[in-house]
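Friendly challenge for the regulars: who can give me the structure tokens for this chain first? No prize, just bragging rights.
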Amino acid sequence: MPILNLTPHPVRLYANEREDGTDDLDPHLREVYAPEPTPARLATFEVSSGMWPVLVEFGHAQNLPPKRDGYQYIVSLVVALALATRRSDLLVPYREVRNASGTVIGCRSFAQPV
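First reply, four minutes later:
Bragging rights claimed.
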């Protein structure tokens, strides 16, 4: 089943054996999903400006293709959560892999928010 990456960065999928704390990207790397040209995002609308905090309403997903049989899409968690009751084809990185400084460099699996 094809998986398309609709985040703005490559998503590295590692085997469960991958340990955190190393800067080498290669050990136990299973696949790299390159980003598509246009990431999916939620539209934002400022409800009140000049106030602190600014009130923001998150709207409809932008740049998200319609459901297609046999396809799944990697998206940000906010996009997946906003559409969880309407889309069963959205995946998010899960069980993150971190480098020596604690920065997320990939994941060990994907999750489908429900």
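The first helix runs from residue 77 to 82. The CA atoms of residues 47 and 55 lie 5 Å apart. Your move, everyone else.
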